[in-house]
Amino acid sequence: MSTPAPSSRPLAPVPARPGSLHRFANPGRFLRLTDRLLPPLWAFALLVTGAGAAWALFFSPPDWQQGETVRIMYVHVPMAWLAMAGYAGLAIASLLSLVWRHPLADIAARELSPAGAMVTALCLATGSLWGKPMWGTWWAWDARMTSVLVLFFLWIGHAALVRAFDEEERGARAGAILALIGAVNLPVIKWSVDWFNTLHQSASVTRIGAPGMHMDMLYPLLTCAMGFSLLFAALVLARVRAGVMERRLRQAQLAQARGQESAA
Fold first, then answer.
1. Rounded CA gap, 223 and 4, in Å?
2. Which residues form the Cytochrome c assembly protein domain (predicted)?
């Protein structure tokens, strides 16, 4: 198996320019920032997630129609939100990579796709667990479920594509194009329950006007969503940090090998 060649875009320090995106593109600055940010972020994320899970599982009431099955919602809904928000972040990173050549964008996109695939898989799995007692089937090919399945395949496709080339930059370009094309699926997921005749219920939290659920369920749901979002952010930042250090190590090893060759 051939070793992937380092990207032709080295992670050299980028001069900070006021008002420029490149101000946040310096790998050294990113590593220093995340070194201070990640420990309290992990702690706060675990605290909020634990509080939300306890609130949802032990103190929120059962639904008058769904009974205890409604507790699946406290995982399913945040995973659905994260799957869509994460893919929007992937599209933004891809745009930064293609247009502005943001030095960290390729690494962020590369490390984001496995995490996004994970939360989308959890969304599909918990949706199936909820669908069996509610609809009498594990799966129905309605518009919402099918479009989320397409989103899962887009995550998997991006994760595989960026790792399919020996030259990382070529893989990053191909993955960025796929991510931007796949972004058209996001509005389909969002409004599929309005555009098509589906089994999936319409929005209960984000609809205009009063939410379609009691506050005793809404507050723990929002707490769980915040906790899972913080965990997702911490996971992605940790993966990007590891990706930056891994690429720096490969570049240092390549420079050392070239120095030895020239000395010989």
1. 42
2. 47-200
- CA–CA distance, 60 with 70 (Å, rounded to integer): 10
HSE toward the beta carbon, residue 184, CA cutoff 13 A: 3
Alpha-carbon distances, residue 3 vs 53, 142, 182 (angstroms): 43, 43, 29
Residue 171: what pLDDT? 92
Cα dihedral sign for 42, 69, 222, 109? positive
The residues spanned by each domain of the chain are 70-199+215-258
**Residue 204: half-sphere exposure toward Cβ, Cα within 13 Å:** 12
In angstroms, the CA 96 to CA 18 distance is 17
Identify the pLDDT of residue 103: 76
- Ranges 147-151, 214-218, 253-257: which has the least confidence: 253-257
Q: Tokens for 213?
A: 């659920």
Query: What token pair was written down for 191?
Result: 């409004």
* Residues 249, 224: Cα–Cα separation, whole Å: 37
What tokens appear for 117 in the block?
């695939």
pLDDT at 208 over 50: no
